[in-house]
Amino acid sequence: MRLGPGGRPVFDDAKERALMARIAEGDGRAFEALYEIYAKPVTNFLYRMCYDAALAEDCLQEVFMRIWKHAPTWRGQCKVSTFIFQVAKNYGLNARDKASRYRARYGDGHRDEEESSAAMGEPVAETSGPAGTAAGEELRSLVRDAVETLPEDQRVVVHLSQVQGLTYREIAEVLQVPTGTVKSRMAAAADALRRKLERHVRP
Amino acid sequence: MNDANTAFGPEACAERREDIALYAAGTLPLAEAQQLEAHFEMHPACRELLEAHRRVLKLVHEESLPGDAVDQAKVLRELKRRMAVESRVSLVPAQAALSRRGRIVWFVAILVVVLGIGAGIAVSTYTPPDGPVGPEGPIGPKPVATYYAPSSAQGKPVAAGDSIEAKGGIVRIVFTGGAEARLRDGSAARITGAKDMELLAGEAAVNVPASRSGFTASAGQAKVEVPDTPGSRFLLSLNQDSRWVVVAEGQVVVRGRSGQVIEVYSGASVDLNAAGDVAPTGTVSLPDTFAWVMEGRAKNLHCLMEAKGAEQGRVHRLVAAIENAGEETILVARYYPLGVNYQLQTLTQDQMQAGFSRLSPVEVRKRKKDGSIETVRPISGTLDLEPGDRYELELDASALPPATTSAVLHYLSFGEEGGGWGFALKSEPLKLSEPAPEEKTPPKDGAAKTH
Questions:
Q1: Of the four listed, B23, B234, B276, B433, which is most buried by Cβ atoms within 10 Å?
Q2: E-state strands within B70-170
Q3: B348 contacts B405 by C-beta, under 8 angstroms
Q4: Does the distance separating the beta carbons of B51 and A26 come in below 8 Å?
Q5: Chain centroid offset of residue B4 CA
């Protein structure tokens, strides 16, 4: 997978369409190639929806199973990346709801779902501490909490935009909402994140 | 919005805040971005706000995510195995590997219920008859052909109006509307749309996933419609001596020629006569009816149901279990504990108010042969049942209607939403609890107590 500016992935739609056509005919190698491209981005996307790495891994398998099964009926009306994230979004929401019901009913050892405490503590001097340092770990924890406590619709937009590098139009296709909605969600999310985190990242 | 506690909020221009956030995110349209850049020249506070946004979004982008930690090779191996058994197309190497492991693959599994009386634990068992092993081994019958209907851009499309005949085995039809039909060998159907088909002769098993309602299957002068239900699976027969529809899961609406409308639920059937009249026929044997769909998939499955404990004379917990009685590992594919489908028929004392209930599982576990209990994950995956292992689904029986005295588990499947094929069985109806002792003096006229 190529990476673009800022380390965001760059998806090659022409190449991926060719892979989808081969997958539709049952080409397992093409499926593996597509999996190679999308396994990590889809896992990360799913993780941002459920915040459970094991669940994200489970969902990854189901997402690609659906891609395999639905490839013959895919009409190519959108980019392959859009199609794949659409499948992931639909599946991730479903899985997240099931997991939430399960947790509500039985409880488990998952992390607390308390509100973010991004406002707590003193500023962390660095914008990103060296890996393994206490300051870096603390900042990462704050960022994770801040993102996790965003409303889900905003969190998904932030992830697709800032991590996956999708355009607003592509995000709108994935989420099946108007581009204006995507923009307003992004703006609201950016503002909420800034208010929670800016004190920790002052220059 | 109150930014009084931030360093940049109060000074930045309120009307530009949203644009600044979008600019920082890197996707403000070019013309607007240029305008904003000019604005930044004159408004340092807005520029500071922009920089704050950028610093924060950079952190978000850099947040460590688990994509690298996932064992992608392991997931891919599992995918290949499932691709082979789910038979959209055949992947010969993967299928060969599966055979080498000697596993029996299940899309679905079934349970039969035996319910105990009183405080004791009653256990009974049911072992399905060994079905003939399908032509491809223990996986079960595989379609000899798959069609995508209609007007699929890829795959093997068939146009509306085309007829399909199943020769030499089951033929699978995948509708772009989301449903799937399987034609029994010797059957024929006509494709009439993305959500429509007409059975011309023989039998068709139809699976309409949740949220894909609107499917209609015609048979002679009758129509079977699938309303908005969480998934419906039914079997339609149009043979000379037998014309009927049987519902395995969900519900359908059957419309007769002269306007009769009958709602049919799981386990029930409706007769369709040649004149187009329809009439309910009550419950049927789902295992017998669906035998050709599930042929070969019941080997080595040992099913049982326990009733656990009682309070005030009523059983309060049911444990439905599948036990692997064979010598090979059984693999329950596409396993979703919380998405499990089952139909529990409950009978009241007067035996006249039978109805189907769905009880939420209160616990899902795998009990190993050595007695240890393995935690069962709440979401998708596969379930390996080693010989002697059993999978248990514990149900809260206290949620049954108070007058329930007997129960029968008709149907249970493990499968993704709308996917897979149900394997249906029906237990013998057994008493759930003894009737409460009669405390009152019976009426002089001896009238029977009713509920």
A1: B234
A2: 104-106, 123-126, 145-149, 163-165
A3: yes
A4: no
A5: 52
Q: Do A190 and B154 touch (CB under 8 A)?
A: no
Instruction: Find out if CATH 2.60.120.1440 is the number for domain B145-291.
Output: yes
Q: What is the residue-wise DSSP string for B198-267?
A: EEEEEEEEEEE-TT----EEEETTEEEE--S-S-EEEEEEE-SS-EEEEEEESEEEEE-TTS-EEEEETT
Q: Please, what is the angle between helix B44-62 and helix A134-148, to 10°? A: 100
Nearest CA to B317 out of B226, B395, B434 is that of B395
B288's enclosing H/E stretch is helix B286-289
CA B209, CA B154: separation in Å to the nearest integer? 21
Chain A CA closest to residue B64: A140
Tell me which chain B residue has its CA closest to the CA of residue A163: B61
Contacts of B145 in chain A (CB under 8 A): none
Domain(s) labelled CATH 2.60.120.1440 in chain B stretch across 145-291
Are B183 and A103 in contact, with CB atoms under 8 Å apart?
no
Task: Determine contact, residues B125/B304, Cβ cutoff 8 Å.
Answer: yes
Q: Which of B283, B401, B421, B424 is nearest to B342 (CA)?
A: B424
Chain A CB contacts of B84 below 8 Å = none
Q: What is the pLDDT along chain B (451 residues), one digit of tens a residue?
A: 334 334 444 467 888 888 888 888 777 777 788 888 888 888 888 888 888 888 888 888 776 566 666 777 888 887 877 776 554 432 222 222 223 233 333 332 222 222 222 222 222 222 222 222 222 222 335 677 778 876 554 456 677 888 899 988 888 888 877 788 889 989 999 988 888 899 999 999 988 876 566 789 999 889 999 876 556 788 899 988 788 898 877 778 999 888 888 888 766 788 888 777 888 876 666 666 777 776 545 556 666 777 887 766 677 888 887 778 877 776 665 565 655 666 677 777 665 556 667 676 777 888 888 888 887 765 556 677 788 888 888 888 877 777 777 777 766 666 543 344 545 455 566 677 665 555 555 444 433 333 2
DSSP chain A: -EE-GGG-EE--HHHHHHHHHHHHTT-HHHHHHHHHHHHHHHHHHHHHHH--HHHHHHHHHHHHHHHHHHGGG----S-HHHHHHHHHHHHHHHHHHHHHHHHHHH--SPPP-PPP-TTSSPPPSSSSPPTT-HHHHHHHHHHHHHHHTS-HHHHHHHIIIIIS---HHHHHHHHTS-HHHHHHHHHHHHHHHHHHHGGGS--
The model's pLDDT over A89-118, given as tens digits with 9 standing for 90+, comes to: 887 777 677 666 656 655 544 333 322 222
Q: How many CB atoms lie within 10 A of CB B298?
A: 22
Q: Hey, what are B314's tokens?
A: 């009523």
DSSP letter (8 states) at residue B14: G
Q: Given B18, B56, B416, which is nearest A194 (Cβ)?
A: B56
Domain spanning A116-203, CATH class: mainly alpha
User: Between residues 42 and 71 of chain A, which touch chain B (CB distance below 8 Å)?
Assistant: 43-44, 47-48, 53-62, 64-65, 68-69, 71
**CB neighbour list of residue B22: distance below 8 Å, 6 or more residues apart:** A183, A186, A187, A190, B28
DSSP state for residue B137 in the 8-state scheme:
B
Give domain limits for chain A. Answer: 9-108, 116-203
Contacts of B82 in chain A (CB under 8 A): 61, 65
- Is the domain defined by A9-108 classed in CATH 1.10.1740.10? yes
